[in-house]
Task: structure prediction
Amino acid sequence: MRIVASARSGFAARARLLALPLLLAPVVLSACASKDDMDLANYVDNTEPADVLYNQALANLNAGRISEASKKFDAIDRQHPYSEYARKALIMSAFSNYRQGRYEEAINSGQRYVQLYPTSDDAAYAQYIVGLSYFRQIRDVTQDQRESRRAIEVMDNLIQRWPDSPYVDDAQTKVRFARDQLAGKEMQIGRYYLERREYLAAIKRFRYVVETYSNTRHIEEALARLVEAYLAVGISSEAQAAAAVLGHNYPDSQWYKDSYTLLQSGGLEPRENSGSWLSRVSGTLTGKKS
Result:
């Protein structure tokens, strides 16, 4: 009996020893788990269905919780990158970022949408958001006009690629404003040179405005400044030609009246000059402010 009991006792002890590595295994495995493994487990635990996330995002958006909506839209892109909801979430992410004034993020999302889904019904809208994001960042004419140039480029692209979209009219309005800003920047630099009596540099700027931005509100002043600058360097024929173009297109303008008076003070008057570069642009002016 003692032999049998002893055998049984030894068997139980061995079973416990054999079971010990199995009991310790989860602890050892847990200790050896990599950070990537834990991140994956956390991802699986926190992943929600795409439709649930999308509806939550829309609910937040409708409630005015735009920041929370944006996070939900971004979560769809991360967790369900190839789904139809991911496509919808991308355009909504661009919109929500724009609404929050996060223009760089809106630009990135909008550009990415156009690249991924160029034939989608929402592609024009994505392009429009990109253009608006640049437009909202346009600065005063005393500062760099990079955003004006980018807004023109993006909106022009929208007009050309999606001419029937409902955003074309506003895109054209934004382009006109941005072009006016670029013309204003040139005028600001031209006036600076004029005040410093660097007349040739000033003429270059004013001429650029006349040739490139003839449908902006700066065209009258640009022509009048050309009259002033050309007279200052003694090129009276070009001064007279500039005044003639100004008078032909804007006869009631105060700028024309001032230019006419300036010419008269030197015994001159407006006169067309078929050999002047100004004769080539005269027909392109509308005679009206944009």
